[in-house]
Amino acid sequence: MKKKQKLLSVIIPVFNEENTIEDIISQVRNSGIKSIELIVVDDKSTDKTRKLLKKQSKNIDVLILKNKNEGKGSALREGIKKATGEILVIQDADLEYNPKEYQKLIAPIVDGKADVVYGSRFTGSEAHRVVYYWHFVANSLLTTLSNIFTNLNLTDMESCYKVFKTDIIQSIKIEENSFGIEPEITAKIAKKNLRIYEVGISYHGRTYEEGKKIGLKDAFRAVWAIFKYNLLS
Asked: Per-domain residue ranges for the chain?
């Protein structure tokens, strides 16, 4: 008897998230969507993350332990290959994004209106933690620069919450190893004849003291990726 396909594949790229990894796995499993394939890719963590992931193995459908730390893009590339669900969502491990919002994120795809959905931290009326002003400015500038080349009117290109029909994201060759993956994916889906939607989401941002990792070098890489994948590819 053929195994029934899961509705949603959730991919969590992880690097040194010992303080949050068990919580996020629990939140995904209690998101309200029963038909979930959970794929966790550890990008060669050096803290207790791997030990905790092995402890949580019964709650993880696919666990990938990379032998080399290469970045978020590399981890996602490995996870996307393994996905078998109808729809795929990217989930960070740091608790900044709430899995209970999966239902509204996948709704435009389930309803047959969309092929891709971005969760926007800057639209809608959901709760939004006030953290770094200059991060907001950087996000706005990167999104605007990306929109200029893609001719999309996104409000949050850098959002973690990106949702795809699985066959679509698996058809895209992902080249970036690090945070340049966000503008890369955006550029590549913009070149396809796809229906793209945005949905307002909540955001519970971390401070650097709480473990936030993204920095100035990642912003420069994102700028390069915008030019590279829109003009040179």
From this structure: 8-232
